[in-house]
Design goal:
The complex is a heterodimer of chains A (131) and B (148). Chain A contains one helix and eight strands. Chain A has 131 residues and is mainly beta. Chain A is elongated and about 80 Å long. Chain B is mainly beta and 148 residues long. Helix content of chain B is 9%, strand content 39%. Chain B is elongated, with a radius of gyration of 19 Å. Strand 5 of chain A pairs antiparallel with strand 1 of chain B, so a sheet runs across the interface.
Amino acid sequence: MAGQDLAKRESTQAEPKGREQELALAPPVDIFEDVHGITVQAEMPGVSKERLNIQADRNNLLIEGDMVIDMPHGMEAVYADVRATRYRRSFVLSGELDSDKIEANLNDGVLTVRIPKRAEFRPRRIEVRTA
Amino acid sequence: MYGSLFGSFDSPAFDDFRLVENALDQLVGRFAPSAAIRAPQRAAFPPANVGATPERVDVYLFAAGVEPKGLDISIQQNLLIVSGSRNVPVDEQADYYRKERFAGEFRRVIALPDDVDPDRVDAKYRDGVLHVTIQRREAARPRQITVN
């Protein structure tokens, strides 16, 4: 479909350069922790795997993605809840998390990022010995 | 890019306004208030965008992680009604720090132009976006009249 091609082409050609201040949506997230690590689930509808960017170093986790929306040529906005096509959100990591072993998975616009704890930081149950 | 769908404020005069608006949006949530009578309260799920051309109306619902087969999409007169539910499994063993994702049943009603043809509707779900296309009636399209 021509509309789809156009939308894709626009989004690659019009890739903003040096426009870091361009408005970005903060995706809603769930964050939870179990004994093995921390999981972040972020909602990024419209983002495909190819347009997802996840960066992690010792201190930070950055999640970014660009939507690709199939739009017919000459479309005019009637109503818009969503007013940007880029998602961006970052989190500060703590030292016990092993950012080299982060795993990510994107499914139907839901990104799941799993950050394991370093083995030595996993809680150990301390047995109390009775004499 | 996408200026035609994601807000029609693309002229440079609006840039400053957009920055302020963006900062506000970040602060209070992603949704700008709407005066439409059926507009949902802030943070309603799923967010929607609507765009139109002379031939058709395109509705986009940003509903990540929804089972498409469980969606109920109907058109009554010029109202598009989408309902369904989203299951977000909760890990009972885990401690939650943030729970921002919507879970449960949802329903959105979107008013379409009066000239839509309820018999010519197409719906696709991809990457978490439900895209509903509704064709408009021929008679309502603008026509060029030539003078003989």
